[in-house]
Each structure stands twice: as C-alpha cells, then as structure tokens.
Amino acid sequence: METIHGGAAAVSGGPNGVVSSATTDATPMDTTTTSNDPKEKLDQVINSIQKTLGTLHQLYLTVSSFNVASQLPLLQRLNSLVLELDNMSKLSENCNVEIPMEVLNLIDDGKNPDEYTRDVLNSCIAKNQITKGKADAFKSFRKHLLEELDQSFPDEVESYRDMRSASAAESKRLALAQSNLPNGDVKVKSEM
C-alpha cells in the first residue's frame, strides 16, 4: 500500500465551497508551544489547514470583485496566505500521518474518502469469514480424526488427551500468573 507522509500532504475543498473556522487573522499559529501528543500536533495542522482554506476563500472573494480600492486587502490576504502556508509546513514536520494513495485518488476523483474505509472494512470482514471457515474446517477434521483414532488406538488417544489437558492446565496457570504481575513478567513457583 502506497502512502503519503506528512500532515499537509493534500488539501481539498468541498464542492459546496463551505469553509469552517475562517479567520481574518494574518498572524500564523504560535509554533513555540511544542507538545509530544500526536493528536494535539494533528489538531494544530488541521486548524492551520482550516485557516488556510478561510484565507483562500477570502482571497477568492477579493479577487472576484477586484477594484483599485481592494488592492491593499488583496496584498494583505496574499501575505496572510503565505504566512499560513509556511506555518502549516512547519507544523506538518512534527506530524507523522500516513495517508493511503487510494484515499487521495478517491478525493481527486471527487468521491467520498469514507468509501475507502467501507471497502477496507468489507474486505476485512470477508477475509475474516474465510479464515473462520478454515478454522472451523480444521476443528471438524481434528474431531473426526480423534474419533477415528479412538476406535483404532484407544489407549494412545487416552494418553494424548491426558497430556493435552495437562498442557492446557499449565498454559492457563501461566497465563493467570502473568496477568497478576503489573509488569507482565511470568512468576513461576518451583514445585519440589
């Protein structure tokens, strides 16, 4: 699976032109507060993207109704856009986000990226059902094999079942001992 890395890999506006959290602020977001929380870093990039989209929308409105009097606001908005794009670039360096190429291709085709999520989920469900069917077939085969072996070699099968139950009991005891320790180490008591 091919992916794009980085927080500001792609920016796509909606078809209805709606922009949320638009601000007229020309100052970029403060990048001096560094956080180790990846969610907070991603939220900062998302906020910067929203501010950039707002600035682009304002720039579009200014250009579409341009006259001599709107030259200064146009320059201010262009400067604001450059500052926010620089800020977005700096913020995205702190984010490690992987975006599958299929999602970007869907966005380029004008489709909803949730389709990709739905397709991946449906594929996982189908593969899970196939794997479950194989596991059920092996269980059925094991049961049938033990029944056949029990008829031909009853003493050996009884010995096998005893060893199997002892092994299962030991595995259960080890799992309980491991779950009781806070660091996950296995504590085994010597039996002498």
Structure in words:
- Component of the Mediator complex.
- Keywords: Activator, Nucleus, Transcription, Transcription regulation.
- One of its GO terms (biological process) is positive regulation of transcription by RNA polymerase II.
- One of its GO terms (molecular function) is transcription coregulator activity.
- The protein is mainly alpha-helical and 192 residues long.
- It is built from five helices and two strands.
- Helix 1 runs antiparallel to helix 2 and helix 4 packs across helix 5.
- The N terminus is likely disordered.
Element-by-element helix/strand order: EHHEHHH
Radius of gyration: 30 Å
User: Main sheet?
Assistant: 2 strands, antiparallel
Helix content: 55-70%
N→C terminal distance = 54 Å
Number of strands: 2
Helix run count: 5
Strand order of the largest sheet: 1-2
Biased composition (Low complexity): 20-36
Region (Disordered): 1-40
Organism: Heracleum sosnowskyi
Family: Belongs to the Mediator complex subunit 10 family.
List descriptors.
two-stranded antiparallel sheet, 192 residues, mainly alpha, disordered N terminus, 64% helix
In short:
Residues 1-40 are annotated as: Disordered. The chain is 64% helix and 3% strand.
What secondary-structure arrangement, pairings included, does this model have?
Blueprint: E1 3-5, H1 38-64, H2 71-92, E2 98-100, H3 101-108, H4 114-152, H5 154-180
Antiparallel strand pairs: 1-2
